[in-house]
Amino acid sequence: MVNLLALSQNKAKAKAKAKKLETAELSRVVLAFTEALEEKELEQKELEMARVEKSQKAKELLALISDSGVTIDDLINLNSTKPKKPKSIVPPKYRAEIDGENVEWTGRGRIPTILKDYMERNGIEKEELLIK
């Protein structure tokens, strides 16, 4: 590949290499490269046509969607298997006043570090912090 690129950039070297070939060999090389060039051009045209067609279809879909009154959220929700429930807020189960500030914990997950330290310093069990 590097040799071909080097030859394509230097006309004199390309001619010198071509002189070493028989006419039939040179014709086959030129034919092979011509066919390769035509295939490459055809591929590029097909890609461009596919891109234009895809763009046109996207525009048509957008027009259909806007005319129908369907929103993007409606389309997204079509793929979901079940409707999403809003997250419920869990009320706090434990509360302590630390440095004049109320610290609350739902009892789920890890205990907040500030609450854990407070309980250790004061020798308090978490049941004593239950909200009644």
What would a concise description of this structure say?
61% of the residues lie in helices and 8% in strands. Strand 1 and strand 2 form a beta hairpin.
**Shape annotation:** elongated
Tally of individual helices: 5
> Radius of gyration from the CA trace?
37 Å
Q: SSE order, as H and E?
A: HHHHEEH
Number of strands: 2
Characterize the largest beta sheet: strand count, sense, and whether it forms a barrel.
Answer: 2 strands, antiparallel
The helical percent reads: 55-70%
Unreliable segments of 5+ consecutive residues: none
Strand order of the largest sheet: 1-2
The secondary-structure class comes to mainly alpha
Termini separation: 81 Å
Q: Please report which band the strand proportion falls in: under 5%, 5-15%, 15-25%, 25-35%, 35-45% or over 45%.
A: 5-15%
Average pLDDT score: 86
Descriptive overview:
Strand 1 and strand 2 form a beta hairpin. The protein starts with a helix and ends in a 10-residue tail after the last helix. The chain has helices at 2-9, 11-19, 23-68, 72-79, 113-122; strands at 94-98, 101-105. It is mostly helical and 132 residues long. Helices cover 61% and strands 8% of the residues. Strands 1-2 form a two-stranded antiparallel ribbon.
SSE order and pairing:
Blueprint: H1 2-9, H2 11-19, H3 23-68, H4 72-79, E1 94-98, E2 101-105, H5 113-122
Antiparallel strand pairs: 1-2
Helix pairs in contact: 1-2
Task: Provide the descriptors you would attach to this structure in a database record.
132 residues; mainly alpha; two-stranded antiparallel ribbon; elongated
